[in-house]
């Protein structure tokens, strides 16, 4: 198929990096710290990380999310002077890594600050840069470790409030329980559920829930990276719907094009329930843990009741 794809998914063009450097130079010349007395300035590259920073830091942290629009394609994000200013002024930064938000590295390098705390989730999880699926926040093991690291870094920046940050961390950890229990219940009730996907956005969650993803990873990676899938993979994916080989179809609601739309249409025509997944946290109305719980609940409704959730 020669369909025009919308975006390059993981690699950012070199020209964009040059633009970011220029933006940083402009922003840094005008940037002033937004730190109020007793308040730490922080940035989350994606709003799910910013949300967790906010939950741990509470009233003693002022948090900005760089990417927060659930209706936008995160992979086509371009840094602006205001983004460069926020990042250069931040005392704490959380970014995903795995090539997902490399613009953050460029901005940070252009505004060096030896006292700045930078949490790269890829490095925190000790994952290689070649990790094929960058959507780390969908793994149930990711955010507890990230939250603990955030609490540690906030405590280092403000030792007098370490107990406060530790209390918020304990509250956050407890708040994940409904999500983790929902995953366990699904896995026990519907083991090996066959599913299809457009790309590996929620694959870590699907693995934790014990599903069997029938969509080849080569196909998922092609969609993720803006490459036309191989004809044989397209045929296989079509057959998953027309031959009713899967119980649910999960698609990236934020990024659609003619190819992914054709699969969405075919799934509906074939009576396969669909579930929307997201790369940035839908807002308003969600925090990280209620967003993740909502995704599992949508998966359960699709499998148990054949009910679609096309938007959270």
Fold-level CATH name of the largest domain: Rossmann fold
State the domain count. 2
- What structural class do you assign from the helix and strand content? alpha/beta
Which blocks of ≥5 consecutive residues have pLDDT under 50? Answer: 1-35
Q: What's the pLDDT, averaged over the residues?
A: 88
Helix residue percentage: 40-55%
Describe the fold and architecture.
The chain is an alpha/beta fold. It folds into 2 domains: 14-175, Nitrogenase molybdenum iron protein domain (Rossmann fold); 177-305, Nitrogenase molybdenum iron protein domain (Rossmann fold), CATH 3.40.50.1980. It has helices at residues 14-30, 47-57, 81-89, 103-110, 121-124, 142-157, 162-175, 177-189, 203-208, 217-224, 231-242, 258-269, 288-305; strands at residues 40-46, 61-67, 92-95, 117-120, 194-197, 212-213, 248-252, 274-277. Strand 1 (40-46), helix 2 (47-57) and strand 2 (61-67) form a beta-alpha-beta unit. The model is unreliable at 1-35 (pLDDT under 50).
